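Ticket #4471: complex job returned nothing on first submit. Input attached below:
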Amino acid sequence: MRSSAATRPRRVLWHALALALLGLIMYPLVWVAGASFTPTNDVVGNTELLPSEPVLDNYARALEGMAGIPVWRFLGNSLLLAVLTVVGTVASSALAAYAFARLRFRGRNTMFVLMIGTLLMPFHAVIIPQYIIFQQLGLVDTYIPLLLGKFLATEAFFVFLMVQFMRQLPRELDQAARIDGCGYWGIFWHVIAPLSRPAFGTAAIFAFIWSWNDLFAPLIYLNTPERFPIPLALRMFADQTSTSDFGAMIAMSVIALIPVVLFFLAFQRLLVQGMATSGLKG
Amino acid sequence: MPRTAQDTRREQRAAVAAPPPAPPPAPGRASRRRRPRDREGAAGYIFLSPWMLGFLGLTLGPMLASLYLSFTDYNLFTAPSWVGLDNYRRLFADDQWLQSIRVTALYVLLAVPLKLALALAVAMLLAAPHRGQGMYRSAFYAPSLLGASVSVALVWRALFSDGAVVDRLLRSVGVQTGGWVGNPDYALLLLVLLAVWQFGAPMVIFLAGLKQVPRQYYEAAEVDGAGWWRRFRAITLPMISPVLFFNLLLETVNSFQVFTASFVISGGTGGPAGSTLIYTLYLYQQAFTHYQMGYASAMAWMLILGAGLVVVALFRMSRTMVFYSGDEGR
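Support reply: We reran it on our side without changes. The output follows.
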């Protein structure tokens, strides 16, 4: 397996194995791309990866959306939620991470342990009281319950990721900045934050994708279809039409996947490295 | 590793924070002249305040609230009424709840080992230097980003429905299962396969771990005539055991929380015949379709206890199974 001398047959075997695996892993994605161009009645039984006579009907019907709401609306909602999530997550996690990684104060280690503890805790444990609070405040069916936590660094994964990164930055930088007259905010803003850009970038991409894919929170908090993000709209569309218009459902699934795929293609190095160094969650 | 960084930092800080004896503070300006340590502490709390608010208001507070609610009967519309341990007693008589535990346990026991085994195998394959390594690594990682989406759950449902690709393929080799989506014997396996498909995230972590293993160990073992299985058992496995434990812990905790796949594939029912009634799905049904907030809170606390016990058991196990070489323990 560990080829100290990569002999020829061994190399061929390696490539054959890797390619076979690649085909298997990619099959569902290639299938759905092909199926989305297949006439709706043939989608289920479709085994060809390249439709012999591609049609665009499925996309035309998918773009019409549902309940008179075009699919652009849902995509726009998802984008708004994802962008605000990224802003809130990066800002609040960076502040918390700076405190955990660079400052010394009473109770820091205890709080750090609690923060790590929330990583391991199933989030369903808090969802019921959270819902009750937002319901009492009359905030159900708004975006506030979906976003408030993001601005309060509740996603411990991102705090942890940034703490790991900031700990590696040389201490001398802080001291130099201090001598130049910077306070703690100055050190954070002029020294630590600019140097932590790679960690912020990784966090931003993950935060975007997770927000884009999230079904659970929108499912429990949102009722008005005009406010639905794409996963919730897609799920409702699937419930209504799975037997009648399979093709449009598949096309809408592809539309929902496209931004994630584009993000992945653009930032794959950063994502894989972020996963490898901080190593958490999938 | 964090310890040593802290220690050096403490020394540096001590050097800075202990200047020659300062002149006595001028009266009246005491507030401006606090000791640097105090100012650092205040800054720490200020930077941490959003997190602290979130932790108290959205994590700790709600957890305690759900503990209280779990002893009440509450439907959102009338005030909660105290019922003592009733909800917990009801749980153990609730066939659906027991079913959801069976389904979840089976799911975790199948999905986590299969996913990790595949992740490790592929990581070892990719650890050997070959052309295209980076491309494969990225491609295999992609499902981990896409897998949690509604889209992929719908694709899975389509691929495994009656007369679709998988059914046809199996029929062509003489296996008659029909559509897995509607078959209680296979529906959960469908969810397991969806989890295994997302092996890329632990694979990337394994790869990072494998890179740390010194090559000389393998060379020495090879000289001594150790076969590949022996090398795997005696070198690879112990050397990557911290990473293995880390992956095992996170994958287990994450598996307890899957929701989207079973919700979408079963249309929210957990069917057919309760075969995909994952714990979180049953909790969702009780809380947000029946508005049994007290009962669902009891379920949430049983989940915290169950998951907590598993985590403790894993940490116990890690004491004997995980090998930390030198000082580089996590």
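Chain A touches chain B through 105 residues (CB under 8 Å). Closing as resolved unless it happens again.
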